Amino acid sequence: xxxxxxxxxxxxxxxxxxxxxxxxxxxxxxxxxxxxxxxxxxxxxxxxxxxxxxxxxxxxxxxxxxxxxxxxxxxxxxxxxxxxxxxxxxxxxxxxxxxxxxxxxxxxxxxxxxxxxxxxxxxxxxxxxxxxxxxxxxxxxxxxxxxxxxxxxxxxxxxxxxxxxxxxxxxxxxxxxxxxxxxxxxxxxxxxxxxxxxxxxxxxxxxxxxxxxxxxxxxxxxxxxxxxxxxxxxxxxxxxxxxxxxxxxxxxxxxxxxxxxxxxxxxxxxxxxxxxxxxxxxxxxxxxxxxxxxxxxxxxxxxxxxxxxxxxxxxxxxxxxxxxxxxxxxxxxxxxxxxxxxxxxxxxxxxxxxxxxxxxxxxxxxxxxxxxxxxxxxxxxxxxxxxxxxxxxxxxxxxxxxxxxxxxxxxxxxxxxxxxxxxxxxxxxxxxxxxxxxxxxxxxxxxxxxxxxxxxxxxxxxxxxxxxxxxxxxxxxxxxxxxxxxxxxxxxxxxxxxxxxxxxxxxxxxxxxxxxxxxxxxxxxxxxxxxxxxxxxxxxxxxxxxxxxxxxxxxxxxxxxxxxxxxxxxxxxxxxxxxxxxxxxxxxxxxxxxxxxxxxxxxxxxxxxxxxxxxxxxxxxxxxxxxxxxxxxxxxxxxxxxxxxx
Length: 646
Hints:
Mean pLDDT: 79
CATH superfamily of the largest domain: MetI-like
Oligomer: single chain
Distance between the termini: 38 Å
CATH architecture of the largest domain: Orthogonal Bundle
Strand content: under 5%
Helix content: over 70%
């Protein structure tokens, strides 16, 4: 890789001009800011048009090439010094020739930047199409089905969704904030282990817990069977047992799997608080409780509100739990309206009402952060002094941290494993292998496409920091806030119209509806934000000077992305692909609505088995989903542990 950096100048057809130009640079020393000296070597040559050229090649540095950030900076500085020397060159025409080449190079880079801008705008338009399709249903005339929904069940949808949000919101706040405070600011046995154990319920979707606990707490399940054997009860008339398939049961299932959102962000908020602030409250006589409520909690409020908003959006997005428990919510109403009543317009209008709920949540979360701002000026990353808990308080802290982990992950995971391996011949069969391959194929393909599109969005935003690009990127990343059932409706409406147009104009049968293309498109709309946020964070850590160094060597925007950024983004790319892969594996409503005929996944088959009360057959697919969901949890726990050590 010799002479990676050199400057060539055209000197017309006169050889003496080339010699004179070469003598000007021959032996010239260029001193870099790091003390390194580079001596110029020159040679002249003639092209096929019989024009003479002079080539200047600085030694020492240019022969090595770019092998790290330091050499990249030095190479950039070397190019600047070399171009500055053109001002003292003996022939003005030579300098003008080089400056003109630099101008055309700049114009070509501007053209490629416009290409990235167009790509970002197209992706944003494509991703926003389902959302716009759902919103456009408000402009259509209301059908009789919609009037029927307003008169009968719409109020139930509103009330049940309200109580779900209130119950889940209260539960995740109490558990998430409480466990975050205990593991961050208190010292008790097992505190270090609970810091990552409390993340485990993230691995299991709420609908899996609903199916598992229904079987466990059924009349012939292990819980009631154990109670009858202990207390000598003979029939259901001898005792009262709560019915988990109810509104409060749905709230409990969602709390157990969604509290880690609040726990994780609240813990980050507590860790990033200044030690001086907490110590000042202690010096003023505040006990732990008063210090928590008057100092720590207000400072962590933005992070807590962000976690709460995520939990509430996931609550409104849930389909499997509320459908299995017979709760009339928006997601079940949309599904029943489309497939039970066959009215896509009414389903779209219901989806629009649900989107309004989501937008209100996003607005409230953002407005709460705008109205309250807290800044830390000193000792930001110093480990706080923890409260030493006594025996009784340590026991209560352990119990408070252990119960969510046990109920949200340990109990259902072990019960599923017991059912799966105790009935291995019924569960681990060829059907299970086929379902696993289907899920793996969809998740892998979706992850690859999502990462590629997210990389284009993130890099396009890096190249063009204008409002149009930023707005387009935010629109493209808004799909994660929209429930999967709404996105499914939004995908079916425009693709159905396109298929009808092709059928009428070209006499072609349906070619897009009910295909894997529809399903992958819905996954991209739903989970593109997951990949984008990961890559945007990783790309922001790369210094812009590396881009300048690459372009000074003649690389365009595409070559800079391939040769410089992608190698540095390898960790972020893998993380983004992993997160999208796991989310697609667990996605139920969009898959249930859009999957091709006779093409099932692990999530769909679990739903079908559970609907038929066949949890034994559903155990193996459910356990596989839980094990796949553990991958990001383990990775996240490892990241937290590594930061704690650092």
